[in-house]
Protein backbone atom coordinates (compact mmCIF):
# COMPACT_ATOMS: atom_id res chain seq x y z
CA UNK A 1 0.00 0.00 0.00
CA UNK A 2 1.00 3.63 -0.45
CA UNK A 3 -0.43 7.12 -0.28
CA UNK A 4 -1.32 9.24 -3.30
CA UNK A 5 -0.87 12.90 -2.37
CA UNK A 6 0.62 16.25 -3.37
CA UNK A 7 3.60 17.38 -1.28
CA UNK A 8 6.06 20.32 -1.58
CA UNK A 9 8.86 18.13 -2.97
CA UNK A 10 9.10 14.42 -3.72
CA UNK A 11 12.03 12.48 -2.20
CA UNK A 12 13.93 10.43 -4.76
CA UNK A 13 17.38 9.64 -3.33
CA UNK A 14 17.56 10.21 0.43
CA UNK A 15 20.72 8.71 1.91
CA UNK A 16 22.17 11.61 3.93
CA UNK A 17 22.36 15.44 3.82
CA UNK A 18 24.83 15.40 0.92
CA UNK A 19 23.31 12.56 -1.13
CA UNK A 20 19.78 13.94 -1.17
CA UNK A 21 17.88 14.41 -4.45
CA UNK A 22 14.30 15.62 -4.79
CA UNK A 23 11.73 16.50 -7.44
CA UNK A 24 10.29 19.99 -6.75
CA UNK A 25 7.40 19.61 -9.21
CA UNK A 26 4.02 17.91 -9.41
CA UNK A 27 5.21 16.00 -12.46
CA UNK A 28 8.65 14.45 -12.69
CA UNK A 29 8.97 15.90 -16.19
CA UNK A 30 8.26 19.52 -15.20
CA UNK A 31 11.73 20.42 -13.87
CA UNK A 32 15.18 19.09 -13.09
CA UNK A 33 15.84 17.30 -9.83
CA UNK A 34 17.46 19.28 -7.04
CA UNK A 35 19.50 18.85 -3.88
CA UNK A 36 17.53 19.69 -0.74
CA UNK A 37 19.22 23.12 -0.75
CA UNK A 38 17.54 23.86 -4.08
CA UNK A 39 20.75 23.50 -6.10
CA UNK A 40 19.99 21.89 -9.46
CA UNK A 41 21.44 18.36 -9.63
CA UNK A 42 19.91 16.85 -12.75
CA UNK A 43 18.84 13.25 -13.05
CA UNK A 44 17.33 12.82 -16.50
CA UNK A 45 15.36 9.83 -17.65
CA UNK A 46 14.22 8.68 -21.08
CA UNK A 47 12.26 5.67 -22.26
CA UNK A 48 12.74 4.79 -25.93
CA UNK A 49 9.79 2.94 -27.46
CA UNK A 50 10.17 1.68 -31.04
CA UNK A 51 12.91 4.26 -31.63
CA UNK A 52 10.93 7.22 -30.28
CA UNK A 53 12.19 8.90 -27.09
CA UNK A 54 9.91 10.00 -24.26
CA UNK A 55 11.12 11.90 -21.22
CA UNK A 56 10.01 10.50 -17.85
CA UNK A 57 12.27 12.69 -15.72
CA UNK A 58 13.99 16.03 -16.11
CA UNK A 59 13.46 19.56 -17.34
CA UNK A 60 11.35 20.14 -20.47
CA UNK A 61 13.30 20.11 -23.71
CA UNK A 62 13.02 18.81 -27.24
CA UNK A 63 12.06 15.30 -26.09
CA UNK A 64 8.33 14.84 -25.56
CA UNK A 65 7.25 14.08 -22.01
CA UNK A 66 5.71 10.77 -21.07
CA UNK A 67 2.23 11.19 -19.60
CA UNK A 68 2.48 10.94 -15.81
CA UNK A 69 -0.53 9.04 -14.49
CA UNK A 70 0.22 8.59 -10.82
CA UNK A 71 2.53 9.37 -7.92
CA UNK A 72 2.44 7.29 -4.76
CA UNK A 73 4.50 7.64 -1.60
CA UNK A 74 5.54 5.20 1.09
CA UNK A 75 8.04 5.37 3.93
CA UNK A 76 10.97 4.19 1.80
CA UNK A 77 9.83 4.82 -1.78
CA UNK A 78 8.32 7.21 -4.33
CA UNK A 79 6.52 5.50 -7.20
CA UNK A 80 5.54 7.09 -10.53
CA UNK A 81 3.45 5.66 -13.35
CA UNK A 82 3.72 6.94 -16.94
CA UNK A 83 2.23 6.07 -20.31
CA UNK A 84 4.06 6.54 -23.59
CA UNK A 85 4.11 4.87 -27.00
CA UNK A 86 1.72 2.09 -26.07
CA UNK A 87 3.49 1.07 -22.87
CA UNK A 88 3.00 1.67 -19.16
CA UNK A 89 6.19 2.60 -17.29
CA UNK A 90 6.51 2.42 -13.52
CA UNK A 91 9.51 4.13 -11.90
CA UNK A 92 10.22 3.55 -8.20
CA UNK A 93 12.92 5.40 -6.27
CA UNK A 94 13.71 3.54 -3.06
CA UNK A 95 16.26 4.11 -0.29
CA UNK A 96 16.45 1.24 2.26
CA UNK A 97 16.19 3.30 5.44
CA UNK A 98 15.67 0.51 7.96
CA UNK A 99 16.37 1.78 11.46
CA UNK A 100 17.01 -1.71 12.84
CA UNK A 101 19.88 -2.31 10.37
CA UNK A 102 22.56 0.37 10.68
CA UNK A 103 24.80 -1.18 8.02
CA UNK A 104 22.01 -1.01 5.46
CA UNK A 105 20.77 2.36 6.72
CA UNK A 106 24.19 3.96 6.30
CA UNK A 107 25.09 2.32 2.96
CA UNK A 108 25.09 5.19 0.43
CA UNK A 109 23.04 3.40 -2.23
CA UNK A 110 19.53 3.89 -3.59
CA UNK A 111 17.67 2.00 -6.29
CA UNK A 112 15.66 3.15 -9.25
CA UNK A 113 13.37 0.25 -10.18
CA UNK A 114 11.44 0.23 -13.44
CA UNK A 115 8.73 -1.94 -14.96
CA UNK A 116 7.64 -1.78 -18.59
CA UNK A 117 4.21 -3.16 -19.50
CA UNK A 118 2.98 -3.13 -23.14
CA UNK A 119 -0.69 -2.12 -23.07
CA UNK A 120 -1.85 -2.13 -26.68
CA UNK A 121 -1.35 -5.81 -27.48
CA UNK A 122 1.61 -5.02 -29.73
CA UNK A 123 5.24 -6.05 -29.23
CA UNK A 124 7.56 -3.06 -28.71
CA UNK A 125 11.29 -2.46 -28.50
CA UNK A 126 11.92 -0.66 -25.21
CA UNK A 127 15.01 0.90 -23.63
CA UNK A 128 15.08 2.68 -20.26
CA UNK A 129 17.81 5.32 -19.86
CA UNK A 130 19.00 7.21 -16.77
CA UNK A 131 21.56 10.04 -16.89
CA UNK A 132 23.16 11.78 -13.91
CA UNK A 133 24.87 15.11 -14.57
CA UNK A 134 28.35 15.75 -13.15
CA UNK A 135 26.98 18.54 -10.95
CA UNK A 136 26.19 15.76 -8.46
CA UNK A 137 29.89 15.97 -7.52
CA UNK A 138 30.48 19.65 -6.79
CA UNK A 139 29.10 22.64 -4.93
CA UNK A 140 28.59 26.10 -6.40
CA UNK A 141 28.10 27.58 -9.84
CA UNK A 142 31.53 27.06 -11.44
CA UNK A 143 32.12 23.57 -12.92
CA UNK A 144 35.53 22.15 -11.92
CA UNK A 145 37.55 19.64 -13.97
CA UNK A 146 35.84 16.24 -13.74
CA UNK A 147 37.14 12.75 -14.38
CA UNK A 148 35.34 9.43 -14.55
CA UNK A 149 35.30 5.88 -15.81
CA UNK A 150 33.62 2.50 -15.53
CA UNK A 151 34.40 -0.95 -14.20
CA UNK A 152 33.05 -4.47 -14.00
CA UNK A 153 31.79 -5.91 -10.72
CA UNK A 154 30.94 -9.43 -9.66
CA UNK A 155 27.32 -9.52 -10.73
CA UNK A 156 27.23 -6.16 -12.46
CA UNK A 157 29.01 -3.01 -13.58
CA UNK A 158 29.25 0.62 -12.55
CA UNK A 159 30.29 3.99 -13.93
CA UNK A 160 31.62 6.82 -11.80
CA UNK A 161 32.60 10.50 -11.93
CA UNK A 162 34.14 13.02 -9.57
CA UNK A 163 36.34 16.09 -9.31
CA UNK A 164 39.84 15.64 -10.70
CA UNK A 165 41.23 17.20 -7.49
CA UNK A 166 39.70 15.79 -4.32
CA UNK A 167 39.75 17.61 -0.98
CA UNK A 168 37.45 15.65 1.36
CA UNK A 169 35.68 17.55 4.13
CA UNK A 170 36.76 20.82 2.52
CA UNK A 171 33.73 22.74 3.76
CA UNK A 172 30.91 22.50 6.27
CA UNK A 173 27.86 24.44 7.37
CA UNK A 174 24.26 24.69 6.28
CA UNK A 175 22.78 25.15 2.80
CA UNK A 176 25.71 23.54 0.99
CA UNK A 177 26.08 20.53 -1.30
CA UNK A 178 29.00 18.12 -1.36
CA UNK A 179 32.22 19.26 -3.06
CA UNK A 180 34.20 16.00 -3.02
CA UNK A 181 33.73 12.29 -3.55
CA UNK A 182 32.43 10.29 -6.51
CA UNK A 183 28.96 9.59 -7.91
CA UNK A 184 28.31 6.04 -9.15
CA UNK A 185 25.65 4.43 -11.31
CA UNK A 186 25.45 0.64 -11.17
CA UNK A 187 23.62 -2.01 -13.20
CA UNK A 188 23.11 -5.74 -12.64
CA UNK A 189 24.81 -8.26 -14.93
CA UNK A 190 21.95 -8.75 -17.37
CA UNK A 191 21.75 -8.82 -21.15
CA UNK A 192 21.04 -5.33 -22.44
CA UNK A 193 22.08 -3.54 -19.23
CA UNK A 194 25.03 -1.14 -19.62
CA UNK A 195 26.58 1.84 -17.87
CA UNK A 196 29.32 4.31 -18.75
CA UNK A 197 30.88 7.72 -18.18
CA UNK A 198 30.46 10.38 -20.89
CA UNK A 199 32.80 13.39 -20.56
CA UNK A 200 31.19 16.63 -21.59
CA UNK A 201 32.21 18.84 -24.50
CA UNK A 202 31.54 21.91 -22.34
CA UNK A 203 32.27 22.52 -18.63
CA UNK A 204 29.53 20.98 -16.52
CA UNK A 205 28.05 18.83 -19.30
CA UNK A 206 29.55 15.43 -18.46
CA UNK A 207 27.38 12.61 -17.13
CA UNK A 208 27.14 8.94 -16.28
CA UNK A 209 24.48 6.87 -18.02
CA UNK A 210 22.76 3.56 -17.35
CA UNK A 211 20.64 1.80 -19.98
CA UNK A 212 18.39 -1.25 -19.94
CA UNK A 213 17.42 -2.52 -23.39
CA UNK A 214 14.70 -5.16 -23.51
CA UNK A 215 14.55 -5.69 -27.26
CA UNK A 216 11.22 -6.65 -28.82
CA UNK A 217 8.73 -7.62 -26.13
CA UNK A 218 5.01 -7.98 -25.62
CA UNK A 219 5.46 -9.14 -22.01
CA UNK A 220 6.12 -7.06 -18.87
CA UNK A 221 9.83 -6.43 -18.24
CA UNK A 222 11.53 -5.04 -15.16
CA UNK A 223 14.94 -4.10 -13.79
CA UNK A 224 16.78 -1.61 -11.61
CA UNK A 225 19.75 0.74 -11.43
CA UNK A 226 21.83 1.57 -8.35
CA UNK A 227 22.64 5.20 -7.53
CA UNK A 228 25.52 5.53 -5.07
CA UNK A 229 27.89 8.14 -3.67
CA UNK A 230 31.32 7.61 -2.12
CA UNK A 231 32.14 10.64 0.03
CA UNK A 232 35.63 9.22 0.81
CA UNK A 233 35.57 10.73 4.30
CA UNK A 234 32.33 11.46 6.13
CA UNK A 235 33.06 13.33 9.33
CA UNK A 236 35.78 14.74 11.56
CA UNK A 237 35.83 13.97 15.28
CA UNK A 238 38.44 15.72 17.45
CA UNK A 239 40.68 16.41 14.44
CA UNK A 240 40.41 12.81 13.21
CA UNK A 241 38.67 12.17 9.88
CA UNK A 242 36.51 9.06 9.60
CA UNK A 243 34.77 7.10 6.87
CA UNK A 244 31.05 6.40 7.06
CA UNK A 245 29.65 3.74 9.38
CA UNK A 246 29.00 1.46 6.41
CA UNK A 247 32.74 1.45 5.58
CA UNK A 248 34.07 0.94 9.12
CA UNK A 249 35.19 -2.64 8.39
CA UNK A 250 36.81 -1.93 5.04
CA UNK A 251 33.83 -2.05 2.68
CA UNK A 252 34.46 -0.02 -0.49
CA UNK A 253 31.88 1.74 -2.62
CA UNK A 254 32.19 -1.02 -5.21
CA UNK A 255 31.49 -3.57 -2.48
CA UNK A 256 28.44 -1.52 -1.47
CA UNK A 257 27.13 -1.36 -5.04
CA UNK A 258 27.74 -5.08 -5.50
CA UNK A 259 25.79 -5.77 -2.30
CA UNK A 260 22.96 -3.46 -3.40
CA UNK A 261 22.73 -5.43 -6.66
CA UNK A 262 22.98 -8.87 -5.08
CA UNK A 263 20.53 -8.16 -2.25
CA UNK A 264 18.09 -5.99 -4.16
CA UNK A 265 15.14 -8.36 -3.98
CA UNK A 266 15.62 -9.31 -0.32
CA UNK A 267 16.14 -5.74 0.86
CA UNK A 268 13.27 -4.41 -1.25
CA UNK A 269 10.94 -6.93 0.39
CA UNK A 270 12.10 -5.73 3.82
CA UNK A 271 11.40 -2.14 2.81
CA UNK A 272 7.91 -2.98 1.55
CA UNK A 273 7.18 -4.77 4.83
CA UNK A 274 8.21 -1.64 6.76
CA UNK A 275 6.16 0.58 4.43
CA UNK A 276 3.03 -1.47 5.03
CA UNK A 277 3.59 -1.72 8.79
CA UNK A 278 4.20 2.01 9.27
CA UNK A 279 1.26 3.01 7.11
CA UNK A 280 -1.09 0.62 8.91
CA UNK A 281 -0.02 1.94 12.32
CA UNK A 282 -0.44 5.56 11.26
CA UNK A 283 -3.83 4.97 9.63
CA UNK A 284 -5.10 3.16 12.71
CA UNK A 285 -3.80 5.92 14.98
CA UNK A 286 -5.19 9.03 13.30
CA UNK A 287 -6.26 8.45 9.72
CA UNK A 288 -4.88 9.24 6.24
CA UNK A 289 -3.62 12.78 6.88
CA UNK A 290 -1.53 11.56 9.80
CA UNK A 291 -0.32 8.62 7.72
CA UNK A 292 0.90 11.03 5.04
CA UNK A 293 2.79 13.07 7.65
CA UNK A 294 4.45 9.95 9.03
CA UNK A 295 5.39 8.61 5.60
CA UNK A 296 6.90 11.87 4.35
CA UNK A 297 8.63 12.72 7.63
CA UNK A 298 10.25 9.28 7.87
CA UNK A 299 12.60 9.69 4.91
CA UNK A 300 13.17 13.41 5.39
CA UNK A 301 14.18 13.14 9.03
CA UNK A 302 16.47 10.14 8.56
CA UNK A 303 18.13 11.62 5.47
CA UNK A 304 18.88 14.78 7.45
CA UNK A 305 21.46 12.83 9.44
CA UNK A 306 24.77 11.19 8.64
In short, what is this structure?
The protein has 306 residues and is of the alpha+beta class.
Task: Explain the overall architecture.
With 306 residues, the protein is of the alpha+beta class. It has one domain (10-300): Beta-galactosidase, Chain A, domain 5 (Distorted Sandwich). Helix content is 18%, strand content 40%. The protein contains four helices and 18 strands. The protein has helices at 102-106, 253-262, 264-286, 288-303, and strands at residues 10-14, 20-23, 34-35, 43-49, 52-57, 67-73, 77-84, 87-94, 109-118, 124-133, 146-153, 156-163, 182-188, 193-198, 207-217, 221-230, 235-237, 240-242. It has an eight-stranded antiparallel sheet. Strands 5-4-10-15-14 form a five-stranded antiparallel sheet, with no helix packed on it. A hairpin with an 8-residue loop joins β14 and β15. α3 (264-286) crosses α4 (288-303). The two termini are 29 Å apart.
Which descriptors apply to this entry?
306 residues, Beta-galactosidase, Chain A, domain 5, 8-stranded antiparallel sheet, 5-stranded antiparallel sheet, globular
N-to-C CA distance: 29 Å
Work out the number of β strands. 18
Report the structural category. alpha+beta
Strand content: 35-45%
Order of helices and strands: EEEEEEEEHEEEEEEEEEEHHH
Please specify the SSE layout and strand pairing.
Blueprint: E1 10-14, E2 20-23, E3 34-35, E4 43-49, E5 52-57, E6 67-73, E7 77-84, E8 87-94, H1 102-106, E9 109-118, E10 124-133, E11 146-153, E12 156-163, E13 182-188, E14 193-198, E15 207-217, E16 221-230, E17 235-237, E18 240-242, H2 253-262, H3 264-286, H4 288-303
Antiparallel strand pairs: 1-2, 2-3, 4-5, 4-10, 6-7, 7-8, 8-9, 9-16, 10-15, 11-12, 12-13, 13-16, 14-15, 17-18
Amino acid sequence: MSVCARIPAVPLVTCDPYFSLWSPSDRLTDSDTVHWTGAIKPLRGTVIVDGISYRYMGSPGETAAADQQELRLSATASSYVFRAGGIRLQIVFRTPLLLDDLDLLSRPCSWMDFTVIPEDGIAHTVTVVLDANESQCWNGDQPPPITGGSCRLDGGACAWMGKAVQIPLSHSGDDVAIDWGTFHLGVPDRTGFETGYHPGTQPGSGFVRATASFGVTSEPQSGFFVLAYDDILSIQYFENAHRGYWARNGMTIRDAIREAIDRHDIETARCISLDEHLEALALASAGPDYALLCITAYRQSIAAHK
